Amino acid sequence: MKVQSNLELHEQSDLSKGGDSHAESDSNMKRVVVAAEEKIKEEIANNFDINSSLKAIRIVDVGCSYGTTTILAVQNIIEAIKSKYKLRGLEDQIPEFQVFFNDLQSNDFNTLFKILPPNREYFAAALPGTFYKPLLPKESLHVVHSSNSLNWLSEIPREVQESTSPAWNRGRIHYINARMEVMEAYAAQYAKDWETFLCARAHDVAVGGLMALLVPVVPDEVDLSSETLTGGDFLIFESCLIEMVMAGVINEEQVDSLNLGFYFSSPQELNGIVQKNGLFSIVSMEKLHSLHSSSVPLEKRTLILKAGLEGIFERHFASDEVVDEIFYRFSKKVVVSSIHLHPENNKMLVLFLLLKRKP
Ligand SMILES: C[S@@+](CC[C@H](N)C(=O)[O-])C[C@H]1O[C@@H](n2cnc3c(N)ncnc32)[C@H](O)[C@@H]1O
């Protein structure tokens, strides 16, 4: 059996079809960057090392997509660094800024370039390719940013796709409510991906350089299926697909072979992964609570989910009619789902991590 990598799936998805769904998803994601704004500014200003020999400060936003969120994130970092120079009375020594926008090659960089602020204070460039590999020459980066991207696995764990494996995820599309072996396979893939990510960034980032990462996580004791919006969404999609099997629209094997490549660790789990890697010190690790109560109108939920999942479904089912039906069924169910009717019960958090490249 050919095991399709998650990256391939994302690469082949046509995100530009998103239209309104992309705009809704962007404004939903932006809430995370807005909630972290003060924290990021404070932490970067406190921990960025001013070096008089620096001629240019290089920043990358990994997994940037093509919306306004990445522009805001980059602006916040630049403001924080400039404020540090100003505070030290070094205003006239502020280096030039070079900003790299990284995402998969399929990302709509042209749309992103069109919305870059005309009066921006930085040189902008696209950096296409996976963030699981080095992106720039050795030690040439000073700040890395990422929001809402580091829970995207590089590939679907092989075991969950193999019918002979105890972790075969038959009849399910995610590890939510699945057997323990499935969950363990996802967790192992996530740990491996983070290790790869940290090693790739250790190549790119100069000693003393910073990484400001915003990662969706869940507290240990949380039941993903009933206490998180995302868990609720995935289960609704699963039930839509099972109904479509019963209606003869798709077949059982198409559900068996579909697995969504997202993982949500606990803060402790992520802490352990970063410590074990050892290439970056953890300067700060904090849960962002201000997102808890905020929710988006329920009728927009389908559009938001479409931005991330439509391409994956299109690739998997190779039929626009099937994909339309999945989202139609989803839109009917989501408005009566208990977790979505009470988004204040959502226990998913965003973890803010500030890491510093060790010597
Ligand atoms: C949910 S979006 C977040 C976009 C943006 N950072 C934000 O907060 O609005 C996740 C982005 O990560 C990108 N992505 C996923 N895996 C990636 C990888 N291995 N390398 C580069 N980008 C990746 C996706 O293409 C997508 O644009």
Computed over alpha carbons, the radius of gyration is 21 Å
CATH class identity = Alpha Beta
> Could you say which structural class the secondary elements and strand pairing correspond to?
alpha/beta
Order of helices and strands: HHEHEHEEHEHHHHEHHHE
How many discrete domains?
1
Largest sheet: 7 strands, mixed
Strand order of the largest sheet: 3-2-1-4-5-7-6
CATH topology: Rossmann fold
Indicate the percent of residues in helices: 40-55%
CATH architecture: 3-Layer(aba) Sandwich
Q: If you average the pLDDT, what whole number results? A: 92
CATH superfamily: Vaccinia Virus protein VP39
Report the count of strand segments: 7
Uncertain spans:
1-18
Name the beta content range. 15-25%
